From TrEMBL:
CC per GO annotation: peroxisome
InterPro entries the UniProt entry points to: Erg8 (IPR016005), GHMP_kinase_C_dom (IPR013750), GHMP_kinase_C_sf (IPR036554), GHMP_kinase_N_dom (IPR006204), Phosphomevalonate_kinase (IPR035102), Ribosomal_Su5_D2-typ_SF (IPR020568), Ribsml_uS5_D2-typ_fold_subgr (IPR014721)
Keywords: ATP-binding, Kinase, Lipid biosynthesis, Lipid metabolism, Nucleotide-binding, Steroid biosynthesis, Steroid metabolism, Sterol biosynthesis, Sterol metabolism, Transferase
Residue ranges of every copy of the GHMP kinase N-terminal domain listed in the record: 156-222
Family: Belongs to the GHMP kinase family. Mevalonate kinase subfamily.
Organism: Aureobasidium subglaciale (strain EXF-2481)
Signal peptide: none
E.C. no: 2.7.4.2
Residue span(s) of domain GHMP kinase C-terminal: 341-415
Protein known as: Phosphomevalonate kinase
Amino acid sequence: MSQSAVAVSAPGKVLLAGGYLVLDRKYNGLVFGLDARIHVSVKPFASSSGVTFSEITVKSPQFQDAVWEYGYRLAEKDGGVKVTQLRVDADFKLNRNPFVETALAYALSYITSVGSSNISPSSITILADNDYYSTSSASLTGARFHDFGVPLAKANKTGLGSSAALVTSFTAAVLSYYLPKETFDLTTEAGKRKLHNLAQAAHCAAQGKVGSGFDVASAVYGSCLYRRFSPSILSAHGEPGTPEFGKQLVGIVDESGANGKWDTEIVKDQVKVPKGIRLVMCDVSCGSQTPGMVKQVLAWRKETGAEAENVWEGLQNVNEGLSRELVQLAESGSKDYSELKQRILAIRRGIREMSEQSGVPIEPPAQTELLDACSRVEGVVGGVVPGAGGYDAVALLIEDREEVVQTLRELLSTWKIEGEVDGSMGKVSMLRVKQEMEGVRVEQSSDYAEWSE
Ligand SMILES: Nc1ncnc2c1ncn2[C@@H]1O[C@H](COP(=O)(O)OP(=O)(O)OP(=O)(O)O)[C@@H](O)[C@H]1O
Ligand SMILES: C[C@@](O)(CCOP(=O)(O)O)CC(=O)O
């Protein structure tokens, strides 16, 4: 068992094309990893009293009250590892973190099923790159990891997929810490595949539903064309502590169980960004969110049958067209972006058709106006509402020149966008993130020493 500190990071994501379609294995999605990462470091638990407990402490020092202490024990009947959040005193209300708790229980259950059952106490630190949460630029101090000064639940997420990047880097760090390299090596393809399977299982369990998993896949593999796994792979197992959970989990992760191999498809070489082009993410803060958009769109698709299928097929075609054009430009070195512009516009037309027919505001008029205005800026190739769409964000492809970024910033600095529910006016801010090809990565644990005391 390894006892030296380890650290791992995993990227956030943006689903540039394929929202909703990617939920169905017939279609795929173009997902970019982003250079905003979540970092997790694990080190031995330093007991000041000399007494050691069976305890794993997790903290997220950028937020208030973000410390979670867990006891753990091997469950009977091969139930894996049951973790229990510890209370400081009987009256203390537990502040639970479902993603951390589930990722820990899943990782320890896997570790004790394939390796040693002797889990030593450890101390885990989570650090998120600053762009995962919005702050006024005045409060940014230039610190590598900003202190957001609020509890995690009050932080304004920018929608970069924090839970998927967290579960992926957390699982990878815990596995690397407790398992010998022969059993788990993150730098190998086999290691990444195990990580992908385990992180998908934990992430689905924590969010209480089986989504498409594009966010976990890009956290592991980075930018890719993604075709989802069959949801049945994750539909039949128990939860940590229930009989045979250990065996079931190993079957899922090592692909040795009744469901056999995962059918996820990750294609890396059909995703390229031409030199001279970059992705820009803009966060839209409207004070309104659209719950249940996915449910509504899928219900409409089911009701409408062939009509909806036509929209889906049409979108798949133009989505594929976008990735093909990006690859073609990257390989030819051409700087003629007129075709790329047309392909982005074709995707937007498809999304608006899906919006209109389903009655779900995927590219609502306020976002159409914003995207049109951005697209008129010299050097902006075009943009879309990424992922599930709505009022949350826009993603743009621009020529990577400082003056383009500057003009866009000026345009957005005064832009007001009307929210959906209460008519409140929101702001639009350009995040500092751009696309990144690489997925999960082993880091130097000493780089985080300052924050993991
Ligand atoms: N820095 C962090 N420290 C600890 N836990 C975190 C951190 N960031 C995210 N989490 C966990 O992830 C949860 C947020 O997940 P959620 O799925 O709501 O957001 P998201 O993944 O950022 O969403 P989106 O897919 O829209 O980008 C938090 O409630 C917490 O449990
Ligand atoms: C609508 C959907 O296809 C994409 C959601 O993406 P995002 O969380 O808005 O980035 C759902 C999914 O793929 O799980």
